[in-house]
Input
Amino acid sequence: MKSVEITLPEWLPGFLDGRTLFNDDTSKMELAVALARRNIAEGGGPFGAAVFDRADGRLVSAGMNLVVPANNSALHAEMVAIVFAEKLLKSYSLATKGRFELFTSCAPCAMCLGAVLWSGVERLVYAAKADDARAIGFDEGPVFDESYNYLEERGIEVVHGFMRKEGRAVLQAYLAGGGNIYNP
Amino acid sequence: MKSVEITLPEWLPGFLDGRTLFNDDTSKMELAVALARRNIAEGGGPFGAAVFDRADGRLVSAGMNLVVPANNSALHAEMVAIVFAEKLLKSYSLATKGRFELFTSCAPCAMCLGAVLWSGVERLVYAAKADDARAIGFDEGPVFDESYNYLEERGIEVVHGFMRKEGRAVLQAYLAGGGNIYNP
Output
């Protein structure tokens, strides 16, 4: 096997419906949470994320958890959003291309938190807290207060639990719908 | 953009030269370190990794750092090896397919350490220590003693600094050759 392809779902363009500008934190997080909700309906995990250009609120890339449909444990929503943003901007560090931020419907796991650091985004905003994910059976991996301190010391602004209620509601809906808790 | 393709280097089959069985830790780590060394010569980062089937020592997948050539900050050697192993075995958790182990030429960064947990490998063996990577200017991200404890509590055996001298030598060779320290 020589290559692995990461493919965005066919429903994404219709879901976005031409929307490209998101001018405040609320509208950006609403998008991340709506991606998570739609992704559940399409057989994915209950997590959504998006990268925005801070200069103009332009959506750069959208991500959703594709672990189960793609048989790929690395395809958390944040990873998908980051990988597509870098592809679009042709750089392994978004920091070289402007000022970017990542919104995600749930606190990043250990893998995604590390990926945020390498991506070059300068701001991370998440909705549901790690405890909300754990409450429905997901593991978040080794993430500690010191992990966030590490990012902040390197200049990444972190906003914790913004629109937590909305983020948590998606997780609860996934649980209520009998969603697959992979890697419990 | 609808998809991102992760492609293994064209030199890999020739490098492996038909070798499929690796029957002890030394031969497995020699492969990971040799992948790192060859990858430097081919314009990649100084890191190599491989997944093996513990039942018979069969090589399942090889990985190398492709961050710079692929413009993708997620493509650390461990991530590449894991993603290709899961693709080959058609599962988002290797734990459902047998007993697997990951060898890597250097201690995993925060992202890769999280990815190891989600991959379902049951053993992690690394050569160079995090300090050896930091010594040439690479950041390892928020990895703490507690991070490894977290993996071990979940049943993952970790072997630290196995053939460290050989792993460190590759990093030093990269530095001496003027290699690009991305994400310093």
